[in-house]
Amino acid sequence: AFPTTASSSASAWGDGMRPMSDVVELACELIARPSVTPDDAGCQQQVADRLQVAGFQCEHLRLGEVDNLWATHGSGAPVLVLLGHTDVVPSGPVAAWRSDPFRPEVRDGVLYGRGAADMKGSVAAFVVAAEQFVADHPDHPGTLAVLLTSDEEGDAIDGVRHVARLFRERGQRIDWCITGEPSSTATLGDLLRVGRRGSLSAKLQVRGVQGHVAYPDKARNPIHLAAPALAELAARHWDDGYESFPPTSLQISNINAGTGAGNVIPGYLQVMFNLRYNPHWDAGRLEAEIAALLDRHGLDYTLQWHRSGEPFYTPEGRLRSVAREVLAGFAGAMPEESTGGGTSDARFIAPLGAQCIEVGPVNASIHQVDEHVRLDDLRALPDLYRQLIARLLA
User: Fold this and answer.
1) Rounded to two decimals, what is the model's pTM?
2) CA distance linking residue 255 with residue 234, whole number of Å
């Protein structure tokens, strides 16, 4: 499957300057598969077919409605995992895109399509880098592995979270993990992500007594009752940050109450909020703190929690130092080392004892209309990953 083009300088082979590279061709083939979470749409089988030819042992882990691929080459320690996902978010209205989101198109040196940056480009680069490395080092020490899921953009229940549970039961060791999330800001390699905050979501329901607004003595308004507690939550200073982590933040995202009528005191109030937190906290302590605050305000409430993942952090060590040096060669300067952004599947691998980093293309268009990646960056990614692998395993 080749990309269509929409530029006077473009050809059916890419950008009109040279034939389409192996990584671009594979990225286009993956983008052309509409693998909206949790549907893998055959992406992992395509990857497995190539990796098996290169000598990898491939295990398909179908968990619930989710496909996961575990491909390994070599044996023993150290174990280096290339972690990615083949699922993508929905495209939204196709008419809003300049070209079909699942028909990859090259325009002026840029590849467009859903998943181009997040993260089928990185998956394609993983495959090419792995093929090149094992061809050059067939008897390399340790284990090189590729782990892919089709449930990163969704609930993340039967994806890497579930796989990590299986690994723990098997005693599967992981020393280093490189996640291909789009981490760069302006130039490929200008940012090295060395950790992520934890994410904890809550759905709060505060019960009152419905009644007529003219007779407040016969009702209990849950909005009025909850307002002081919500104000305290919103204003609370949780901490001052942790090393390179920003301070913990609580954000209220939804508030809903009432029948739609202007003369009715509602019987309940629903509030949704999320905390992004650094290693000063864990989910259990945050849940206890918030429950104690609500109790102190005397509310009649129920609270449902969803633990997306605990924070993780990779301190200075071999993985981080190697990555810093390799990225500097691509970006022309030492990368920023960051723990910002949302969450990634590395949050499930880190608790296994692995050091985790995230390295990928520029994060400028992910989840947006006309998602894209620069061809020059995509062509450079396999070499970036291959250098990381070689420095760690060769």
Assistant:
1) 0.89
2) 13
